[in-house]
Hints:
Layout: H1 8-23, H2 31-64, H3 80-83, H4 95-114, H5 121-137, H6 145-157, H7 191-199, H8 204-234, H9 238-246, H10 249-255, H11 262-277, H12 281-294, H13 301-308, H14 312-334, H15 341-347, H16 356-363, H17 371-393, H18 398-412, H19 422-429, H20 434-454
Helix pairs in contact: 2-4, 2-5, 5-8, 5-9, 6-7, 8-9, 8-11, 9-19, 11-12, 12-14, 13-14, 13-18, 17-18, 18-19, 18-20
Amino acid sequence: MATSTLPRRQQRPAVDNRAAASAGGPHAGSPASAGKQRAAANAGAVALCGLVAAMALLAIATASAPSSAVAQAAPHFFPGWLAGPLGGLGLQTSTAGLELLVIAICACYAVALRCAGAISARRLWSAIVLAHLAALLAPPLFSGDVFGYIGFARLDVVHGLSPYVYTAAAAPSDPIYHLLGWTTLTTPYGPLFTLLSEALVPLGIAGGLWAFKSIAALASLATVVLIWRAAARLGRSRRRAIAFYGLNPLVLVFAVPGAHNEALIGMLVAAGALCLVAGAEVRGGLSLVAATAVKTSAALVLPFALLGARRRGRAAASMAAALLIAGAVAWIAFGPHLFGVSGALSEQGRVSGHSLPAEVSQLLGAGQLALPVRVVFLVAFGVVLIVMLWRCWRGAHWLDCYGWTTLALLASTAWLVPWYGLWALLPASLSSSRRLRLATLIGCVYLVAIRIAIQNPLSAA
């Protein structure tokens, strides 16, 4: 292309300018088109203000009084360290109020995403940062997984018990024990994340909670920065790309407030994607393997990234070297105990009430999750995986193929929670496929619904 010889600073604005022009159709320069652009920009600005305001109200309301929206909170247990810095503001709302705030965030996101091409980058970035700040300051919402992170780390550091072998039940006197949702599981997380968790143990339980929340918020913002840079190299609209990920309710309502390690995985995968797009296969391979060392589910990206690399041999060598380094570090830190992660992963295959296989099994009257239904979904995932690897090998963009395969994985898994949606958000945000983005958004709606409307965890508030 002729534009490839231009300096990067001259190329990047053209991406969003072309996207904005195309939004106006063939007569993008006409007064009518200009009016539509102004209307879209104004609607988008209002949506951004509404989203940030709703996030702030959600953070303040959940910090003001215990509810089932706040992990481990109870009428007689809501200490200041759990409520967080917003706890003294005293704004309380009903269960319906909390649900309406989440719905408002989703609605504002939909409008902002639709108008993202017309919204200035400054406004988008301001909204993303402010919304992430509200998510950071909120108490842990809709999940107590972060206490599991702390509990596994304390097993090793405080009690000298490998979290890959022992469960929390081996140390029932630990002060974290009454905050745990899992007491009979060993850790399912990779060695890199376990080592990071153990480094935070000296901060204590309260310090560890807010350290994990800070890591999630910073990692999520770093992911948005990486998407911004990668989108320019791929010829995508940067504004649409960062809006798709950075304003998504799965990120703002679930992943960051709940301090989930999916935010960290997203950052590492985004860094790997940017490196591969830029032709830096060595750094890309290292980053993607690091994501796998946080959580094994991230390993799905490796074959697609390898097939999509410009220099496959170099990418394969870097991934192999990174795997050897990660394995050596893990063996030094945990020894043969590390193999216990396989048992933990199999235990996590238990049924989530509203995973698609469970829903289909119940609709067929076959029980919570019949084996034939489970097998059908797994076979379907296998077929999608093979087809997408073949398409990638034949020249389809690896991020598109990875995105479709990730959606298939989410559809086939027996254990499904909203923050898993971040696996699919990243490739969809950088994809040129409108169908993939639409399918991902439909998946997001379902993931929010199973937590807010169907399972309705707020009903006990």
